[in-house]
Design a protein that fits this description.
Helix content is 38%, strand content 19%. It has eleven helices and twelve strands. A hairpin with a 2-residue loop joins strand 8 and strand 9 (203-209). Helix 2 (29-40) runs antiparallel to helix 3 (45-53) and helix 8 (247-267) runs antiparallel to helix 11. The longest helix has 21 residues, at 247-267. It is globular and about 50 Å long. The protein binds zinc ion.
Length: 327
């Protein structure tokens, strides 16, 4: 009898948890992967594949972000710049995202690509778009891997932009030799666990500490304008599992995914962005955004609040599946 009562209590507790939209659906790795697969659909297939189907750190020698000086063939990465929202411009490559968020008091650059791409994509891209790189006031680095941060030192030294990074990622960055590709930025704004808000003119970026991909990974919430509508972007700052394969690391990553899901929900985010085009199809969406839209047709980046939640559910469930599979 007591056992039956206990089972009932557990079932009721499970139902109560299940009623919450953001609760995990399964309790085994296979169930969690199945839930993540459902959440991914085809909207978020790239993210699902990278962290649930083929996690980078599953093998003894995980795939590391390359930090080579050799410049790949330009045709394999170069992208024209695109105006994607009225106040947001894609200045990334075919592979990695960099964005210019324009405000009434200057430009906020989000992520800065490999060193070889910063001049042709960010500097020349802004100029092509009719913007002035001298107006860059802040450079937000989602995390300290070369594919996102090698342009930071140049934007800081040439234009006086303030570089914003997670405190833990500043520590690793400042240990690099001066000869590191792109150089080493000087420490400007270090973001701790509580995050902070960066306000420039009338625009505020909510900077959220989401450790996991790296210890200092940052994610963001910020507004974009689409005609007379203002939409909220949830920008996920780190995705792949190329950190040491330890249960604690997956737990930290999982908890950050939950934190970001809650923040995105509270802010009413209907757009999710990441910093690799494989995760949010930024290069595709940027090009599709150039085409005319029918009356009432949504922006190609606007996927709605539920699909934004799905994105963070995938991150949460794939991390939890890996954590559980280690026990
Ligand atoms: Zn990375």
């Amino acid at each position: 009898m007591q056992t039956r009562l206990l089972v009932t209590a557990v079932l009721l507790a499970a139902l109560a948890v299940g009623a919450h939209a953001q609760a995990p659906v399964g309790t085994t790795p296979a169930q969690l992967v199945a839930a993540a697969k459902r959440a991914a659909g085809t909207d978020h297939a790239g993210t699902f594949l990278r962290i649930c189907v083929a996690p980078d750190n599953q093998n003894a020698t995980p795939r590391r972000p390359p930090s080579v000086r050799a410049v790949p063939d330009r045709a394999t990465w170069y992208s024209r710049p695109y105006k994607v929202f009225d106040n947001l411009y894609f200045v990334g490559t075919q592979i990695h995202s960099a964005w210019a968020l324009t405000t009434s008091a200057g430009i906020i650059v989000i992520d800065t690509l490999f060193d070889y791409a910063v001049e042709p994509e960010i500097v020349d891209g802004l100029t092509t778009l009719g913007l002035d790189p001298k107006d860059i006031k802040y450079v937000l680095i989602s995390h300290a891997h070369g594919d996102h941060d090698q342009g930071a030192a140049m934007l800081q030294s040439r234009y006086g932009a303030k570089v914003v990074m997670g405190a833990a990622d500043w520590e690793s960055t400042l240990q690099r030799p001066a000869s590191a590709p792109g150089g080493v930025p000087k420490r400007d704004i270090a973001v701790g666990p509580d995050g902070l808000k960066i306000t420039l003119g009338r625009t505020t970026v909510d900077v959220i500490a989401t450790p996991g991909h790296t210890p200092g990974t940052l994610s963001y919430l910020f507004p974009v304008k689409d005609g007379n509508r203002t939409l909220t972007v949830a920008y996920s700052g780190g995705t792949a599992f190329n950190f040491p394969r330890l249960a604690d690391n997956f737990a930290v990553y999982r908890d950050s995914a939950k934190k970001m899901a809650a923040a995105a929900s509270a802010a009413g985010a209907t757009i999710v962005m990441s910093n690799h085009t494989e995760f949010d199809r930024a290069w595709d969406r940027a090009r599709i955004a150039q085409l005319p839209r029918a009356a009432g047709e949504k922006h190609p980046y606007e996927i709605g609040p539920q699909a934004v939640q799905h994105y963070f559910e995938i991150m949460r469930d794939c991390a939890e599946a890996q954590r559980l599979s280690m026990n």
